[in-house]
Amino acid sequence: MRFVNLDALTYAGNLENVAGLTDQPNYSFELGDITDSVLVERLFDLYKFDAVVHFAAESHVDRSITDPTTFVRTNVDGTIVLLQAARNNWKAGQGLFHHVSTDEVFGTLGPTGLFTLNSPYAPRSPYAASKASADHLVRSFGATYGLPYLITNTSNNYGPYQFPEKLIPLVLNNARQRIPIPVYGKGDNVRDWLFVEDHCAALEIVLFQGSIGSTYLIGGSQESSNLGLVKALLDVYDEKTGQASGHSQSLISFVQDRAGHDFRYAIDSSETQKELGWSPQHSLIEGLKKTVDWYMKHSSWLSNILDDSYRTYYKSQYDNR
Ligand SMILES: NC(=O)c1ccc[n+]([C@@H]2O[C@H](COP(=O)([O-])OP(=O)(O)OC[C@H]3O[C@@H](n4cnc5c(N)ncnc54)[C@H](O)[C@@H]3O)[C@@H](O)[C@H]2O)c1
């Protein structure tokens, strides 16, 4: 099996993250933008793909609030470019298009209840709306052109290699630098946390065993308020860095809440578990321990990815090959 990784290496992408794959004979990296239809058509022609797993996205809600247009461009326009290329290159009923999506398309929950396959779409941020649009486009290509597809809607991921704008690496980066750790509002918004390796395991099972035309919900069943999560994470960090318990919690700084901040996400993945035999293998505390270990061991990665000049240099090395 051959794997081709198409990535534009935006601020969130980093070739160092896939350095371990570069020497594999069945792996190729292509630098490029999914909105570039000429490039995407050329890659379909060159590699004769039999499946597309569509991860590429703008993914940070805060950025979608300041710059929604970029989110529509990548997440909606980029998705239609990939879908059109699939339609042009695959005969009806051939190929497989897997859209990696989010539970945020379902909007927000109150203190109880779970998102299910029957939950209506109700996105509330430009990010969520752009991913919802992409989900709809994928389903429409299935109904209209017979495109075989799969959609996965997943809860909040965390773990190694995550860009430090997302909550967990942001907390670890700030704790390392002993600078304030921002927490929105009172920190009572609730998320369902999924360790990234558990997500990847689910994606692999869905891709190879999922029923064509189906949607699978994937969650960690590990709910925590943002404040509870930050405190638990800092406790792990303090323990692993030999500091007194509670030492880093003094860095927590409550800041003005995010506009339209969804109160709670929680997803019912029992149907996925029953049908495909997948279940998350990490409790939140186990996942946090692994994550802290990884970031402590890779502190230079954290500094490098925040350094624009480093990333530009790294990308130019690729451009010049
Ligand atoms: N992180 C989560 O908690 C989470 C949860 C559910 C679903 N998802 C989905 O999983 C996917 C991956 O999320 P992530 O957290 O790794 O995102 P990320 O923002 O960390 O990384 C996005 C990747 O896409 C690439 N990219 C961005 N725009 C591109 C373009 N126009 N053309 C080609 N490549 C482009 C970037 O270079 C980067 O490598 C996304 O589709 C996201 O919506 C993420």
Topology:
Blueprint (H helix, E strand, L loop, with lengths): L2 E5 L19 E5 L5 H11 L4 E3 L6 H6 L1 H22 L7 E6 L23 H20 L3 E6 L1 E3 L8 H11 L3 E4 L5 E6 H14 L4 E5 L4 E3 H15 L11 E4 L14 H7 L7 H14 L1 H7 L2 H12 L2
Parallel strand pairs: 1-2, 3-4, 4-5, 5-9, 6-8, 7-11
Antiparallel strand pairs: 8-10
Helix pairs in contact: 1-3, 3-4, 5-7, 7-9
The protein binds nicotinamide-adenine-dinucleotide.
Bound molecules: nicotinamide-adenine-dinucleotide
Order of helices and strands: EEHEHHEHEEHEEHEEHEHHHH
Strand sequence of the main sheet, in spatial order?
A: 3-4-5-9
CATH topology name, in short, is Rossmann fold
| Helicity level | 40-55%
**How far is the N terminus from the C terminus?**
25 Å
Count of domains: 1
The number of distinct β-strands equals 11
What is the CATH superfamily classification? NAD(P)-binding Rossmann-like Domain
Most strands sheet: 4 strands, parallel
Gross morphology: globular
Percent strand equals 15-25%
**Can you count the helices?**
11
Mind telling me which CATH architecture this is? 3-Layer(aba) Sandwich
**Class by alpha and beta content:** alpha/beta
Give the structure's gist in a few sentences.
This protein has 321 residues and is of the alpha/beta class.
Descriptive account of the structure:
This protein is of the alpha/beta class. The protein has one domain (3-316): Rossmann fold. 43% of the residues lie in helices and 16% in strands. The chain has helices spanning 37-47, 61-66, 68-89, 126-145, 167-177, 196-209, 226-240, 270-276, 284-297, 299-305, 308-319; strands at residues 3-7, 27-31, 52-54, 97-102, 149-154, 156-158, 181-184, 190-195, 214-218, 223-225, 252-255. Strands 3-4-5-9 form a 4-stranded parallel β-sheet, sandwiched between helices. Strands 6-8-10 form a 3-stranded mixed β-sheet. Strand 4 (97-102), helix 4 (126-145) and strand 5 form a beta-alpha-beta unit. Helix 1 packs parallel to helix 3. It is globular and about 60 Å long. The mean pLDDT is 94. The chain binds nicotinamide-adenine-dinucleotide (NAD). Nicotinamide-adenine-dinucleotide binds at residues 7-10, 12-13, 33-35, 55-59, 74, 78, 100, 102, 131, 154, 156-157, 163.
